Amino acid sequence: PQPTPLRPTLTGSFSTPAGGNPTGAMVEAAYAHHGVLARFVNCDVPPEQLEAAVRGAVAMGWIGFNLSLPHKQAVIPLLDGLAPSATLIGAVNCVVAGADGLVGHNTDGAGFVAALREMREPRGRHVVVFGAGGAARAICVELALAGVASLRIVNRRTERAEEIARIVRENTATDATAREWTGPYTVDTDADVVVNATSVGLAPDSSARVNVVAASLQSGMLVCDVIPNPPDTPFLREARERGTETLDGRAMLVNQAAINIGLWTGLAPDREVMHAALDAAIADWRH
Ligand code: NDP
Hints:
Helix content is 37%, strand content 20%. It is of the alpha/beta class. Helix 1 (23-34) packs antiparallel against helix 9. Bound molecules: NADPH dihydro-nicotinamide-adenine-dinucleotide phosphate (NDP).
């Protein structure tokens, strides 16, 4: 049925804890700006209720929903299909409910690559990624699918970096290698793009710095961080002092939400409107 002002189309998110999730603010700002008769409901769903929540969304005719911690892998058995990159990443943050049933996508890495493209074309680049958790995995897979020449994946637990490197090598043409991280890391001199995809710098521990040799950050590099709150991390400040360009974690968050709206509605939303809504949500979050 067509949505009406009294019966909007429904979308939302399932996670726990859900209180600090700013996605709804961005998505509802985009719906309002474009006059889309839709709502986004941010739901706190414990693991034992995930299946019921998914069935409830289907029963209520939701057109799609996001998954955040801790549901990104647990949702997979509940779905009818997966997009190719979600299969490689092994996690789903966005589900589309359509004629094919429930199809899982992963738009975290795609959001990062979309943000990166505004500053650098990824094809042929040499990239150093710190971290080997869910965010790093999504970013590495999407960078490889976008044609980066090489990925060096730096992580304390090297075996997690090895696993991502193996997935990338087996499925793409990118040369991916894992690197040990036992002390301050000297960034490879040929690196074009350096990404912090660890949780170092995230509030409340916002003074934590990525363990890197600052002098190895060179002025031609683009230095990126996934941390959205606070967005200006010690790592990015250190990089700017070395004369590099930087990209903060808000751009990835805005772009993944914009891609989700596109998958659900076909709309290419105004990302500046979404960015402003994110900034307002982050300001609320801090107080
Ligand atoms: P995970 O828990 O899956 O992974 C955390 C990663 O950080 C691991 O690689 C871990 O290393 C590393 N790490 C944690 N503490 C340290 C430390 N003190 N020193 C070195 N490495 C450390 O988390 P996610 O990958 O899901 O999320 C990572 C960050 O990305 C979060 O802060 C999250 O807010 C952000 N994020 C941002 C998004 C955006 O759109 N901007 C989207 C998704 C996530 P090890 O394996 O050795 O323990």
